[in-house]
Amino acid sequence: MASEVQSKSVPMEEASFEIASGGGGRARDDFDDDGRVKRTGTLVTASAHIITAVIGSGVLSLAWALSQLGWIAGPTVLLIFSLITWFCSSLLADCYRSPQGKRNYRYKDAVRTHLGGVSSKLCALAQYVNLVGVTIGYTITTAISMGAVKRSNCFHRNGHDAACGESNTTNMIIFACIQIVLSQIPNFHKIWWLSIVAAIMSVAYSSIGLGLSIAKIAEGPHARTSLTGVTVGVDVSGSEKVWRTFQALGDIAFAYAYSNVLIEIQDTLRSSPPENQVMKKATTIGVLTTTTFYMLCGVLGYAAFGNTAPGNFLTGFGFYDPFWLVDIGNICIVVHLIGAYQVFAQPIFQFIETWSRNRWPDNRFVTTEHVINIPLLGDCPFSLFRMVWRSLFVIVTAVVAMIFPFFNDFLGLIGAVSFWPLTVHFPVEMYIVQAKIRRFSATWTWLKILSIVCLIVSLVAACGSVQGLIHSLQDYKPFKIS
User: How many domains in the chain?
Assistant: First the structure.
């Protein structure tokens, strides 16, 4: 193989041009109005990116979230979060281009254009902290699902009461190795196929969970449920009920978190028809699809398990049989989150690499690309800097996941921290500036009220998740067999 691989070193900008043109250059029509290679994204690919980003590990915790909130508040909160996400994402889609028509390649670029430099820095901090948190959360979830496959087979062979332990640490190492390889994909435009595969997987495991819930309900006897969720004095104490309710809000917020990559997804779309129109349609399709699955999985999952619903309804072993179907569901989760990890990690990669090139423009380690010709794959870009730094990022996120492998608590905290600033605050503020809405007008007032209410929800959800993490850490020993 080594003899078949040929490489040459060229500056990064020349490499991207040469790869695109096969060494012979491209016609002007092959480039967009900003001088970059013409984007080819469509409504289908954008919808796939959104579904991949939204339907993630969040769907697995919805039965538990509804068990904390009950039949009245649970579905109502789900619907409210979906409407807020859809509305604010539609506002954000209009901010991809500046009033002068210039493209904003990243979320923080859009914020800088409309709100200024200080807001842009705050946005970047919130966005990248959230993205890092999501990659850690996906590492935890994937490892749990990988372990669940082995445990499911163990239970099938030895009985449901067997001591079937599994090391999540080993599974996280395997997942990290896969991500190190996939992270060498240069950018978002190259992973459209991965998002489509991941979107199919997300629909598959959601459908499996849905089918298993229906089967469990049909078996009877019916699980104990209530209008207000877990019962104080029976299931939990009064204080625990409050904390769990707050944490459930964070879990639901996390389930709808994708605004932090919306601009990056929109930047993959072709310029005709207008990107904002296509993105709004993709947002509608994505949010409608995910809300349908969320409502079904959450409601039927709660009906199946009642107030004792597990935190992850495919790995908490509320289901044992048919074991092969549970295995397929967890394998679909693994495949989906392998792709979803890249959807959330690519913006981090692009930010660090762009910053590094601007900071050290004369450093060949940072700026040089190698064009490698690999049989069957053709010309492939390779950068030593990209390989080293992206591999380190994957390793660090895996180590953090090994130290704090708490599914519900971690997801709730990520959702709480990111929901208000990224999903609500910045889109609302940019829309107010862009549309030149007069202060204290009716529209300005209700938008501000929406933002303030969502801030309060984020704060209480964060408090609930932090309390859950503290409680989980009390008796936890890192790297043990679970």
Answer: 1
pLDDT band at 450 (very low <50, low <70, confident <90, very high): very high
Q: For residue 174, what pLDDT is reported?
A: 93
- Asked whether residue 297 is domain-assigned, the answer is yes
What are 155-170's pLDDT values in tens digits? 777 776 677 766 788 8
Residue 207 lies in a domain: yes
Closest by Cα among 131, 419, 402, 400 to 251: 419
| β-pair partners for 31 | 37
Q: State yes or no: pLDDT of 245 exceeds 50.
A: yes
Evaluate whether residue 395 is within a structural domain: no
pLDDT tens, residue by residue, 110-152: 899 999 889 988 888 888 888 888 888 889 888 888 888 888 7
Q: What is the pLDDT of residue 10?
A: 41
CATH classification at residue 143: 1.20.1740.10
The residue-averaged pLDDT of 420-445 equals: 91
State how far the Cα of 209 lies from the Cα of 221, in Å rounded to an integer: 19
pTM of the model: 0.76
Range of the domain at 157: 43-164+192-345+409-466
Whether residue 397 is contained in a domain is answered as no
**Cβ 397 vs Cβ 135: under 8 Å:** yes
